Amino acid sequence: MFAYLVRRALQIIPTLFVISVVIYALLALKPGDPIDELRRGNPGFTAADYDRLIKLYGLDKPWYVRYWYWVGRAAQGDFGPSRRFGMPAAQYVFQYRLPNTLLLSGLSLLIAFVIAVPTGMLSALRQHSLFDYGVTFVNFIGVSIPIFWFGIMLMYIFSVQLRLLPAGSLQTPGIEGLWPIIVDRARHLILPVAALSSLQMASWTRFMRSSMLEIINLDYIRTARAKGLPERLVTVRHTMRNAILPIITLVALAIPTVMSGAVLTETVFNWPGMGRAIFDAIVVNDFNVAMVSLMFISLLVLLFNLLADIIYVIVDPRIRYD
Amino acid sequence: MTNRTVAARSKAPIPEKVIERNPSTWQLAWRRFRRHKLAMLGGTVVMLLLLAAIFAPWLTPYGFSYQNRQLLLRECGELPPGEFGSPHPCAPSVDIPSDPQLLGQCVRPAVLVWKCGMHPFGTDDLGRDILTRVMQGGRVSLLVGFVAALAATLLGTLLGGIAAFLGGPVDAVISRFTDIMLSLPTLPLLLILTGLLANQEVPLAAYLSQTLGPSKSIVVIIIVIIVLSWMSTTRLVRGEVLSLRSREFVDAARASGAATRHILVRHLLPNAVHVIIVQATLQVGEAILIESGLSFLGLGIQPPAVSWGNMLARAQEFVFTPNGIYVAFFPGLFIFLTVLCFNFVGDGLRDALDPRAKR
């Protein structure tokens, strides 16, 4: 078991290497280069300048040569500068973007999980009840609604019409004091979190419900009832425990996806997070920022996959990895 | 049945009606589907939307890029002139700010002219009728949804079927490739793909813009969606065919000397078809959602082509414009309704086509 986990953990390194090659190659294949941005903003830019800069940045070399340089530096923890923000790409991503993303996606996933699991369970336990139909219907809405449109509508209702909540961005400038800052940040978080958690909530509730329904009809549940176990214990110990198992993988895999994929919500609410950072970096060819954020997300995907396996072993004694 | 049997017994000879043919699988499925109220509702709405999209040019008096300049506020504070020099009877009901500093904000408001029935959904900032554009956008969005879903399902079915049926190294290659595609971060893949297909130096992109002109972005988005969404079908079909392959009736067919192709076409496919149909239905909604998201970010359908997604491209700014909510509300509402209805239909089909389900 321990050997298996060590092997899995070690496998992360070559996998990450392959992913980095693929992403680097894809980015290099994309039309345009980092000089384009300079040229666009600078009317006095000549062809000679262009050639000089291309040489200076080493962009005249084929991508695999550039990749070799990049990977050599990256292995030492140097991910190169961000051409757009004039600071190390890693600093930009980890200091200015990652905390915002952790806050937004972490909170959204937490809320989605806390609401989805009991709702899904209850919905399954009272199958065909009014509550069940209501939950199912709301789930349909949750998975069908375009998330950015939902965000815009929330913004219209709560910020424009009711003027209750701010219409986006991280915080109000010029607020002093610890407590007012916390309140202000929380107010800014409500709408984006509501938008972002809705989709996860709907799909997890759905998943939880069907997972419960599958188990409710199994033999050992009938056995538990037959031997006279109180209904509450049957539900809590036998059904819930087993039903919650498959959702662990789902949650573990959703974390990196939500962190990198919240670009729509971040765009609507002008939230400076990772999704938007990756998007912008790719659009303006700020390769180093794109690389460091994508590598980070890939590492997260691999780590959370591993974590899901570990949790599985802990909660399900039947699973043995050898 | 009981009544009829009794009647039949009492009278000889047996009337022919008793030897009624059993309803076919599809008839049974239709009966089950009809009982699913939400699915029937969804199906009806989808049909209506399709009809509206198909007949859009005949249903609306405006062209989708026609600008009703009469209703545009040329300058703030000055209402557009009507026929007799008085304000136009359909003039927009916009609050004109008295503060001169705010005047700049209402130069081009979205105009709602409900009272004249001219523009039931209002117009956008350029004076274009939103209802017309929703219908026109529906043509594009539904087209993208159907074509992309159909192609992705076909591709996924083909790959999944091949992987499961041939097994061995072919299966390994296809399965690993599917896994890799599923674990790659979607967003950069999208950006790079759309970027590649926008680059004139790429032969396929150059060919597309040569043959398609301004509607090229529609084909590009369809290709992008197909590349991104065949994997789930592949996995599903592979699993289904693998489980079917080991069933007795396939063994029986093989034992009686049926050719591989015969088994695949006659035995495996018909038994897996219900899974595929449901998947395709859900895929349509999924494709419409992807299209709208991409177009919202400015990567999808490019103007002058209209889609529900690109009507929302700057929607979050309009929230703050007087009456601007109409610009943001309607296209999104139609995306939502369409995807919802496809999900209802998919759910209904899942229940109706399940071969284990009873009558």
TrEMBL record, chain A:
Single biological process term from Gene Ontology: transmembrane transport
Q: Cellular component terms, GO, for this chain's entry?
A: plasma membrane
Protein name from the UniProt record: Diguanylate cyclase
Q: Which InterPro entries match?
A: BPD_transp_1_N, MetI-like, MetI-like_sf
**What top-level branch of life does the organism fall under?**
Bacteria
Q: Which UniProt keywords apply?
A: Cell membrane, Membrane, Transmembrane, Transmembrane helix, Transport
Q: Does the keyword Transport apply?
A: yes
Automatic annotation (TrEMBL), chain B:
Question: Coiled-coil stretches, from where to where?
Answer: none
**GO BP term, pick one:** transmembrane transport
Task: Write out the transmembrane intervals.
Answer: 38-59, 142-168, 180-198, 218-237, 324-345
CDD domains assigned to the protein according to its UniProt record, in alphabetical order: TM_PBP2 (cd06261)
Main location class: membrane
PROSITE patterns assigned to the protein according to its UniProt record, in alphabetical order = ABC_TM1 (PS50928)
Choose one Gene Ontology CC annotation of this protein and give it. plasma membrane
- For this UniProt record, give its keywords in alphabetical order, as a comma-separated list: Cell membrane, Membrane, Transmembrane, Transmembrane helix, Transport
Database matches in Pfam families: BPD_transp_1, OppC_N
Q: Which domain of life is it from?
A: Bacteria
Protein family membership: Belongs to the binding-protein-dependent transport system permease family.
Name by which UniProt lists this protein: ABC transmembrane type-1 domain-containing protein
